[in-house]
Amino acid sequence: MYVVGLTGGIGSGKSTFAALLVERGAQVIDADQLGRDALRPGAPAWHSVLDTFGDQILAAGTMEIDRARLADIVFADSRRLAALNAIVHPVIFGGIADDLDRLRGTDEIVIVDVALLSETGLDRGMDCIVAVTTNRQLRTKRLQRDRGMTLSQIQARMGAQKPPEELEAMADVVVRNNGDLEDLAREADRVWAELERRRDAAR
Question: Can you give the pLDDT at residue 86?
Protein backbone atom coordinates (compact mmCIF):
# COMPACT_ATOMS: atom_id res chain seq x y z
CA MET A 1 0.00 0.00 0.00
CA TYR A 2 1.29 3.44 -0.97
CA VAL A 3 -0.52 6.25 0.86
CA VAL A 4 -0.91 9.65 -0.76
CA GLY A 5 -2.29 12.72 0.97
CA LEU A 6 -4.34 14.82 -1.46
CA THR A 7 -4.98 18.36 -0.32
CA GLY A 8 -6.28 21.62 -1.76
CA GLY A 9 -8.40 24.56 -0.73
CA ILE A 10 -12.10 24.98 -1.31
CA GLY A 11 -12.87 25.49 -4.99
CA SER A 12 -9.51 24.12 -6.14
CA GLY A 13 -11.00 21.05 -7.85
CA LYS A 14 -9.42 18.59 -5.41
CA SER A 15 -12.43 16.26 -5.36
CA THR A 16 -12.66 16.26 -9.17
CA PHE A 17 -8.97 15.38 -9.31
CA ALA A 18 -9.51 12.57 -6.80
CA ALA A 19 -12.26 11.16 -9.05
CA LEU A 20 -9.87 11.26 -12.03
CA LEU A 21 -7.30 9.29 -10.01
CA VAL A 22 -9.97 6.69 -9.18
CA GLU A 23 -10.54 6.24 -12.92
CA ARG A 24 -6.81 5.47 -13.22
CA GLY A 25 -6.86 2.84 -10.48
CA ALA A 26 -6.55 4.64 -7.15
CA GLN A 27 -8.42 3.79 -3.98
CA VAL A 28 -9.76 6.98 -2.39
CA ILE A 29 -10.59 7.68 1.25
CA ASP A 30 -12.76 10.80 1.26
CA ALA A 31 -12.55 12.75 4.53
CA ASP A 32 -15.48 14.98 3.52
CA GLN A 33 -17.70 11.93 3.03
CA LEU A 34 -16.62 10.54 6.40
CA GLY A 35 -17.56 13.91 7.91
CA ARG A 36 -20.98 13.82 6.25
CA ASP A 37 -21.53 10.28 7.50
CA ALA A 38 -20.58 11.40 11.02
CA LEU A 39 -23.40 13.95 11.01
CA ARG A 40 -26.18 11.61 9.95
CA PRO A 41 -29.19 11.74 12.28
CA GLY A 42 -28.72 9.54 15.32
CA ALA A 43 -24.95 9.16 14.98
CA PRO A 44 -22.96 9.97 18.14
CA ALA A 45 -21.36 13.05 16.54
CA TRP A 46 -24.80 14.24 15.38
CA HIS A 47 -25.99 14.23 19.01
CA SER A 48 -22.87 16.08 20.15
CA VAL A 49 -23.16 18.73 17.42
CA LEU A 50 -26.83 19.24 18.22
CA ASP A 51 -26.03 19.60 21.92
CA THR A 52 -23.34 22.16 21.10
CA PHE A 53 -25.12 24.25 18.46
CA GLY A 54 -28.81 23.73 19.17
CA ASP A 55 -31.65 22.71 16.88
CA GLN A 56 -31.29 25.93 14.87
CA ILE A 57 -28.88 23.98 12.67
CA LEU A 58 -31.52 21.43 11.62
CA ALA A 59 -33.08 21.69 8.17
CA ALA A 60 -36.71 22.73 8.42
CA GLY A 61 -39.04 19.82 9.16
CA THR A 62 -36.25 17.22 9.34
CA MET A 63 -33.63 15.84 11.70
CA GLU A 64 -30.90 16.45 9.11
CA ILE A 65 -28.21 18.99 9.94
CA ASP A 66 -28.28 21.90 7.50
CA ARG A 67 -24.58 21.83 6.61
CA ALA A 68 -24.64 25.24 4.92
CA ARG A 69 -26.20 26.85 7.99
CA LEU A 70 -23.73 25.12 10.30
CA ALA A 71 -20.85 26.26 8.06
CA ASP A 72 -22.02 29.88 8.21
CA ILE A 73 -22.03 29.68 12.01
CA VAL A 74 -18.62 28.09 12.49
CA PHE A 75 -16.72 30.01 9.82
CA ALA A 76 -17.84 33.26 11.43
CA ASP A 77 -16.33 32.27 14.81
CA SER A 78 -13.02 30.41 15.15
CA ARG A 79 -13.98 29.10 18.62
CA ARG A 80 -17.13 27.50 17.27
CA LEU A 81 -15.18 26.05 14.35
CA ALA A 82 -12.73 24.53 16.84
CA ALA A 83 -15.65 23.09 18.81
CA LEU A 84 -17.10 21.45 15.70
CA ASN A 85 -13.71 20.07 14.68
CA ALA A 86 -13.20 18.62 18.17
CA ILE A 87 -16.39 16.59 17.68
CA VAL A 88 -16.09 15.54 14.05
CA HIS A 89 -12.34 15.13 13.47
CA PRO A 90 -11.89 12.10 15.77
CA VAL A 91 -14.67 10.31 13.86
CA ILE A 92 -13.04 11.17 10.52
CA PHE A 93 -9.61 10.04 11.77
CA GLY A 94 -11.11 6.76 12.95
CA GLY A 95 -12.73 6.17 9.56
CA ILE A 96 -9.47 6.89 7.74
CA ALA A 97 -7.59 4.49 10.04
CA ASP A 98 -10.20 1.76 9.47
CA ASP A 99 -9.97 2.12 5.68
CA LEU A 100 -6.16 2.10 5.76
CA ASP A 101 -6.20 -1.06 7.90
CA ARG A 102 -8.50 -2.69 5.35
CA LEU A 103 -6.10 -1.88 2.50
CA ARG A 104 -2.86 -2.63 4.36
CA GLY A 105 -0.85 -5.38 2.75
CA THR A 106 -2.21 -4.63 -0.73
CA ASP A 107 -0.34 -3.05 -3.65
CA GLU A 108 -2.91 -0.24 -3.96
CA ILE A 109 -2.18 3.45 -4.31
CA VAL A 110 -4.47 4.93 -1.66
CA ILE A 111 -5.48 8.58 -1.90
CA VAL A 112 -6.48 10.20 1.40
CA ASP A 113 -8.52 13.19 0.19
CA VAL A 114 -8.52 15.78 2.99
CA ALA A 115 -8.48 19.60 2.85
CA LEU A 116 -6.88 20.12 6.28
CA LEU A 117 -4.03 17.67 5.79
CA SER A 118 -1.24 19.41 7.69
CA GLU A 119 -3.54 21.24 10.11
CA THR A 120 -4.76 17.89 11.46
CA GLY A 121 -1.32 16.25 11.44
CA LEU A 122 -2.39 13.63 8.91
CA ASP A 123 0.43 14.70 6.60
CA ARG A 124 2.91 12.91 8.88
CA GLY A 125 1.48 9.51 7.97
CA MET A 126 1.67 9.93 4.19
CA ASP A 127 4.21 8.47 1.77
CA CYS A 128 3.62 11.36 -0.63
CA ILE A 129 1.62 14.61 -0.65
CA VAL A 130 -0.18 16.02 -3.70
CA ALA A 131 -1.55 19.56 -3.61
CA VAL A 132 -4.16 20.87 -6.05
CA THR A 133 -4.09 24.66 -6.31
CA THR A 134 -6.05 27.19 -8.34
CA ASN A 135 -5.85 30.96 -8.54
CA ARG A 136 -8.19 32.79 -6.18
CA GLN A 137 -10.26 34.43 -8.92
CA LEU A 138 -11.10 31.10 -10.56
CA ARG A 139 -11.85 29.44 -7.21
CA THR A 140 -14.24 32.26 -6.37
CA LYS A 141 -15.97 31.98 -9.76
CA ARG A 142 -16.40 28.20 -9.37
CA LEU A 143 -17.83 28.48 -5.85
CA GLN A 144 -20.30 31.16 -6.88
CA ARG A 145 -21.39 29.18 -9.95
CA ASP A 146 -21.39 25.63 -8.57
CA ARG A 147 -22.36 26.14 -4.92
CA GLY A 148 -24.16 29.47 -5.01
CA MET A 149 -21.86 30.87 -2.33
CA THR A 150 -21.60 34.58 -1.57
CA LEU A 151 -18.30 36.43 -1.55
CA SER A 152 -18.37 36.72 2.24
CA GLN A 153 -18.96 32.96 2.60
CA ILE A 154 -16.10 32.22 0.20
CA GLN A 155 -13.73 34.59 1.99
CA ALA A 156 -14.55 33.06 5.38
CA ARG A 157 -13.86 29.53 4.17
CA MET A 158 -10.68 30.45 2.31
CA GLY A 159 -9.50 32.34 5.38
CA ALA A 160 -9.77 29.18 7.48
CA GLN A 161 -7.49 27.22 5.13
CA LYS A 162 -3.83 27.43 4.19
CA PRO A 163 -3.08 29.66 1.18
CA PRO A 164 -2.06 27.88 -2.05
CA GLU A 165 1.60 28.84 -1.76
CA GLU A 166 1.84 27.07 1.62
CA LEU A 167 0.16 23.95 0.22
CA GLU A 168 2.59 23.91 -2.69
CA ALA A 169 5.56 24.30 -0.34
CA MET A 170 4.58 21.21 1.66
CA ALA A 171 3.72 19.04 -1.36
CA ASP A 172 5.83 16.48 -3.19
CA VAL A 173 3.68 16.89 -6.32
CA VAL A 174 1.80 20.06 -7.32
CA VAL A 175 -1.21 20.26 -9.64
CA ARG A 176 -2.16 23.77 -10.79
CA ASN A 177 -5.79 23.52 -11.85
CA ASN A 178 -6.27 26.76 -13.78
CA GLY A 179 -7.57 25.21 -17.00
CA ASP A 180 -10.49 23.02 -18.07
CA LEU A 181 -11.35 19.40 -17.32
CA GLU A 182 -9.26 18.13 -20.23
CA ASP A 183 -6.23 19.92 -18.81
CA LEU A 184 -6.93 18.38 -15.41
CA ALA A 185 -7.27 14.91 -16.94
CA ARG A 186 -3.82 15.31 -18.51
CA GLU A 187 -2.49 16.31 -15.10
CA ALA A 188 -4.11 13.17 -13.64
CA ASP A 189 -2.22 11.06 -16.19
CA ARG A 190 1.03 12.76 -15.24
CA VAL A 191 0.48 12.44 -11.50
CA TRP A 192 -0.73 8.83 -11.71
CA ALA A 193 2.44 7.83 -13.59
CA GLU A 194 4.52 9.64 -10.96
CA LEU A 195 2.68 7.93 -8.08
CA GLU A 196 3.18 4.52 -9.69
CA ARG A 197 6.88 5.30 -10.09
CA ARG A 198 7.18 6.37 -6.45
CA ARG A 199 5.27 3.32 -5.20
CA ASP A 200 7.44 0.94 -7.21
CA ALA A 201 10.62 2.67 -5.98
CA ALA A 202 9.45 2.34 -2.37
CA ARG A 203 8.92 -1.43 -2.56
Answer: 96
